[in-house]
Design goal:
Oligomer: single chain
Helix content: 40-55%
Distance between the termini: 41 Å
Strand content: 15-25%
Strand order of the largest sheet: 22-21-23-20-24
Mean pLDDT: 91
Largest sheet: 5 strands, mixed
Length: about 900
RNA sequence: GCGCGAUUAGCUCAGUUGGUAGAGCAACUAAUUUACACUUAGAAGGUCGGGGGUUCAAGUCCCUCAUCGCGCACCA
């Protein structure tokens, strides 16, 4: 491996990212240090260290990662690695988003193209299976790509917006909001996407400027007032004409009603006076179409006007004679315009540009339609939250500086949006997503899932406990007197907990504890259900043998492999939870069982992987007669109940992301430790979709902010500053760039000079430049190694003035950049490190040291300086260029620890 | 209509609280086997979008105009 100079062979060749990166990533994964718990267990992080947590904005499972995702991963990984090196208890939590409409329409397109089928041809179940398969494949691609970016994500906590844990969160959130009257079902004018066949929210609209015509005409010859419109086809649905109350021209007509036949359709028009009408616009009179305009619907409500729907879900006319019925709105428009002209009713045809609402995902022109949908009321005062509305809850944390937004100019954008916010439509007529957790019975009454509180309890002290002997799933060891007293005391405590049902393990120590409790709280001991499945884990012939001197019995039992293995225990845990779903009781459910098995139950609730049950059990050992609370959500069941067919807006589940990923609604250890999260890093294009909704959900459901700082990154454009798009053919695949130049080079190119919120141009030249830098660093390491291999490292050599000045200079730089790291100025830090390493350290310091080492005078000082300086630079560069720095640190220099968990080289 | 951002070398962009204009790339001149040719040294290149103001001093602060980009609102 080593040549004469004791230099590793690989160091003699140029740096090869290809041969290095995957190997290093594997080493990081093997270490487990992406998981903060393992960092604590292995002693690289102090248990009482300050937590740092961040959720990954979950990429949509619609395909692959693009350069925008790459930038996001780079910035967040820099934040994460920096925090980890500072010794913080660091969690960066990965996940993906089911992106309901986007994913479903993608699969629909593929289905149409490859098989010529529509989703209805497959049916809901089969179609969803296809979507799930597609989502799984996308997910795998995305995860693979994130790993290649070097992302130090804790994969053991990976979440999906549509998995079981997140579904529990969604049902809980929905039920609580419904209970508080924040979620309601109502008839409203909604944004209907005729192509996607679903309702969408105001935020999913894209306004496109189009040329169109403004027509001014009368409904009929003897109608007294002219009106203007760009959509004559909707006028067959008019039920009123509204005028400004102060408009002298029309005052005489207000309150009068007229009949007319408009293009063959009989209409009945009432003249009303309404404040919302501007008398200077057009004719100063507004034809009111309550079914197809938001504003008109509001006027109609105020004046009690009838609503006539004339356009259907396919954007076709649903009224009129042969000339109109079933025609597309565009055709109907021409027909009606021609009719107006023919009748001599047209007064003016003007060219105007107008903003047309289109659907973000499908591009279809939105048709405002009256529909029965689910909404979130943003203006209702909430008793539990100081009578504040959701709107106010969203504004307060920013105003009160609890949440810092970087760059701060986005604060105004945020305020602007919240203040203009209308009720949020959350139901979608698509199949892929969380089903709305509402059931209807035969009479149409609404039923929601119910929350059930469960208390896990451990039995009182048993004889085996007191003798420190193993007592597993077969032990018949009875309670001691102490144990009975403990059980009685627990019963006293539980009196106020409204326990209405008790389930017990079938072993005597649990059963006896349960019976004592039952008597204390006034329940019939006969009513206790005994579940053999809920017994303690099996320990085989360890039964009744003494506990180990060191460590916990659970670990010893598992490692002895004499009883049940983890897979068997997990199976049993799952079956107990399954059984719990069908338990009916009004109040709190008490489960009396055992330490080991209860810990596994807790681990399951917290989402701990079974491989880590043992470590988890060590953390959460239950004392005799202690309890642990969790909740279950029961969907309504019974004859004739049907669930709402619609699904939820994908942003509903995304809004819960900072805490649903940490196990909410369970009161998990993760939730306590890591929420509110430290930072949210994301693109400023989703400030409304996502950031605002997370603040809404978190402040309402948890009463706390979801994150302390929001860091927005900008758009990544191509080298010419153009937006990357399929039609321009200028989309760059980050993986191609990595293959060519290495991840470290791409990371540096993406970060240098790119401040928060500003767009950046990514050109290949820039990446190439940083791949050269990687090689430079490689050769610096080689030089240092070659020239210091004979240095006696057992003593520290004194530095001369010049070399001491170099070290001082580096420390000053480190101090400067540490301050900038804390201010999120990564773009500056990366550039400064690059510049110092190359143009000062390599070009000046190393050149100077060459002479000294060759001449012999000051040789030891120079060598000592080099071996001191290089590790400082490697540490500081690690968050930016993790692979090459780790390779130099771990493989070449053969340091004991991974650089990943080494200390950041400067403390302030 | 309201608001935000950008305008600095040929190109892409830095420039922290006002204190003598900076980097990378490109182009130019040289070095020639070196820790590194994925190299080094050097020179060249800018009235910091226009105009006005505050100040001893403005790329930086204020006003105004222009161009480009973006967001929101209005859309009868």
């Amino acid at each position: 491996m080593h040549n004469d100079n004791n230099i590793p062979e690989k160091l003699l060749k140029p740096y090869s990212a290809k041969d290095t990166e995957s190997r290093i990533y594997e080493a990081w994964l093997d270490s487990g240090f992406f998981n903060p718990d393992i960092c604590v267990e292995k002693g690289v992080t102090k248990a009482d260290a300050e937590p740092f947590s961040m959720v990954l904005p979950p990429p949509n499972v619609t395909g692959t990662l693009h350069t925008g995702h790459a930038l996001m991963l780079v910035i967040e990984d820099i934040m994460t690695r920096y925090a980890r090196m500072q010794g913080k208890r660091t969690l960066w939590l990965p996940g993906t988003d089911h992106a309901a409409i986007a994913t479903q329409s993608k699969v629909e397109k593929i289905l149409e193209k490859e098989e010529g089928k529509r989703k209805q041809d497959l049916g809901r179940e089969e179609f969803l299976a296809r979507v799930n398969k597609f989502a799984q494949e996308s997910h795998d691609t995305i995860v693979g790509q994130a790993k290649r970016m070097g992302a130090s994500l804790d994969w053991s906590r990976e979440a999906f917006t549509l998995d079981a844990t997140r579904n529990l969160a969604v049902r809980t959130a929905f039920s609580r909001m419904y209970k508080d009257g924040l979620i309601y079902r109502g008839h409203r004018i909604v944004n209907w996407d005729p192509k996607g066949q679903t309702v969408i929210s105001d935020d999913e609209l894209v306004y496109e400027e189009r040329k169109s015509k403004l027509y001014t005409f009368k409904y009929s010859k003897d109608f007294p007032i002219s009106i203007s419109t760009t959509r004559p086809e909707t006028k067959v649905g008019d039920t009123a004409v509204a005028v400004d109350p102060t408009d002298e021209r029309y005052k005489q007509y207000v309150g009068k009603e007229y009949d007319a036949v408009f293009c063959g359709v009989p209409i009945h028009i009432k003249i009303v006076a309404d404040e919302s009408v501007e008398k200077d616009f057009g004719t100063g009179a507004l034809g009111v179409t309550p079914a197809h305009s938001q504003i008109d619907a509001e006027i109609a409500t105020r004046h009690n006007l009838p609503t006539i729907q004339v356009i259907n879900e396919y954007a076709k006319m649903m009224i009129g004679g042969e000339n109109l019925l079933g025609k597309k709105v565009t055709e109907a428009r021409e027909t009606i315009v021609q009719w107006i002209r023919d009748e001599g009713l047209m007064e003016k045809e003007e060219d105007v540009t107008q903003n047309v609402s289109t659907a973000e995902r499908t591009g279809a022109i939105i048709e405002p339609l009256p529909k029965l949908q689910w909404f979130i009321n943003v203006n209702k005062p909430i008793a539990d939250r100081g009578n504040k509305t959701l709107k106010e809850l969203m504004l307060a944390p920013i105003r009160e500086k609890q949440i810092e937004i970087l760059p701060d100019r986005f604060e105004n954008v945020y305020y602007n949006w919240v203040n203009n916010l209308r009720d949020w439509c959350i139901s979608r007529q698509i199949w892929y997503g969380h089903r709305i957790p509402v059931w209807y019975d035969k009479d149409g009454a609404i039923h929601l899932p119910k929350e059930r509180r469960v208390l896990l309890a451990r039995h009182g002290e048993s004889e085996a406990n007191s003798l420190r002997l193993f007592a597993g799933g077969k032990s018949q060891s009875p309670l001691t007197d102490t144990g009975r007293a403990q059980a009685k005391e627990l019963g006293q405590k539980l009196k106020s907990e409204n326990v209405t049902k008790i389930i017990s393990s079938n072993l005597p120590r649990a059963r006896e504890t349960a019976e004592i409790i039952a008597r204390e709280i006034g329940l019939d001991p006969q009513s206790i259900e005994e579940w053999a499945d809920y017994r303690e884990y099996e320990v085989g012939d360890l039964e009744n043998t003494p506990w180990p001197e060191k460590g916990i019995p659970f670990r010893t039992a598992i490692e002895s492999q004499k009883g049940e293995n983890l897979a068997q225990i997990e199976q049993r845990v799952i079956s107990v939870f399954k059984k719990l779903e069908s338990v009916e009781t009004e109040g709190t459910l008490l489960m009396v069982g055992h330490n080991g098995f209860n810990c596994c139950m807790k681990a399951h609730i917290e989402g701990v992987q079974k491989e880590r049950f043992v470590e988890f059990a060590e953390l959460c050992t239950m004392e005799n007669a202690s309890t642990h609370e969790f909740m279950l959500m029961h969907n309504p069941s019974g004859e004739g109940l049907t669930q709402d067919e619609d699904t939820l807006d994908t942003w509903f589940s995304s809004g819960l992301w900072t805490f649903s990923t940490l196990g909410w609604p369970q009161k998990t250890h993760d939730l306590k430790m890591f929420h509110p999260t430290s930072v949210l890093e994301t693109g400023h294009d989703i400030i409304f979709f996502w950031v605002a909704r997370m603040i809404l959900m978190s402040t309402y459901l948890l009463g706390e902010i979801p994150f302390k700082t929001v860091y927005f990154h900008g758009l990544v454009r191509d080298e010419k500053g153009r937006k990357m798009s399929k039609s321009l053919g200028n989309i760059v695949d980050p993986i191609t760039l990595i293959d060519k130049y290495g991840t470290d080079a791409l990371r540096m190119a993406m970060i240098v000079g790119v401040g928060p919120g500003s767009d950046s141009n990514l050109g290949e030249e820039k990446i190439k430049a940083y791949s050269k830098f990687a090689n430079k660093l490689w050769n610096i390491a080689r030089f240092v190694m070659e020239n210091t291999s004979k240095l006696d490292t057992t003593t520290t050599h004194t530095l001369d003035t010049e070399d001491q000045a170099t070290i001082d200079e580096i420390n000053a730089l480190l101090k400067e950049i540490t301050k900038e790291m804390n201010e999120y100025k990564f773009y500056l830090v990366a550039e400064k490190l690059y510049h110092y390493t190359w143009h000062t350290f390599a070009d000046v310091v190393i050149e100077r040291s060459k002479n000294k080492i060759a001449n012999g005078t000051g040789s030891e000082s120079a060598q000592q300086m080099l071996v001191t300086a290089l590790p400082l630079l490697l540490r500081a560069l690690h968050p930016f260029m993790p692979y090459i720095t780790e390779e130099l640190w771990n493989t070449v220099y053969n340091e004991k620890n991974l650089l990943l968990v080494e200390e950041w080289p400067c403390k302030i």
